[in-house]
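Hey,
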Amino acid sequence: MSQGTKMASNQATQNANQAGSHAARLSSHTKGKQAILDRDTGLMLFKDMTLGRRFEDKCAEMYYRGKMFGFVHLYNGQEAVSSGVICAMKLQHDWFCSTYRDHVHALSAGVPAREVMSELFGKETGCSKGRGGSMHLFSKEHHLLGGYAFIGEGIPVALGAAFTSRYKKDALGDSNSDAVTAAFFGDGTCNNGQFFECLNMAQLWKLPIIFVVENNKWAIGMAHDRATSDTEIWRKAEAFGMQGEEVDGMDVLAVRGAAQRALERARAGEGPTLLECLTYRFRGHSLADPDELRAEEEKEFWAKKDPLKNLENELTTNNLATDDELRAIEREIDYEVTDAVDFALSAPEPKPDELTKYIWAE
């Protein structure tokens, strides 16, 4: 066996072991009750997650057909985190801060599929007027404070939004100021300075913010277990006296339950929560990534934990929805996504003479 073959074999074994340790955490450390599942809630969550999945699949199709350009990072597999957190919050009241993997966060926050798709095509009808593209979605109307290309960039912005909520209530006497901010970021961000600095300030001032770690095991091509001295990110909250919780990020009801607890604490003035969601991305880091670093056994293991299939099973097993109803929702979503593509392709490009528009306040 050649040296290169030995190294590849050792890496595959190590990756498989890491997959096992990550999976073990799903059953041994996650705690807290799931959210209550009723028919209306279940169908709402299924629709939101299906929109996220089908939208991303269509993005991949457009990219590989040469219709979409630039860096595109898809969210497939992580839908339970976006839907579980954002759908538990008050849309157009609470605030959201995303990463470069931001399409589905925007959709869950209520940004129309037409506006998100238009932005991916760089069109004037996009939510960022065609200036941001895939990694920089923004919508003031929907309280989406942006997607950010550099890891950790959005956390201080989210902290500022949470500080604003507290300042309006305490300093300006606005008793209705109870907005909570959700800051989404990945496991690779949790060794960066902004993360620790913002956790400290949030706890010091008891700010209404939820730090949502989407731990999908991989920071581009670096396995989480090889990059950090303490792989259980939620425990880092203890250093600041903050509430920390670990949750199965492939189970939307588990995520929703944890989010509801964090929201209740935040609105009651009890401060922030560090919520670690154990999840997995089904595609490569970006659509330019051939995804050759992850073991096939690992990918197959996590594919069996598909959050959409889990929710569908919950709905049908508990007689809250029929298979026909769920298939009808999928057809409705497929139409919405197709319409978004058609709309985006026919939308106007930004005008060249407006190149500097939106850079400064007018």
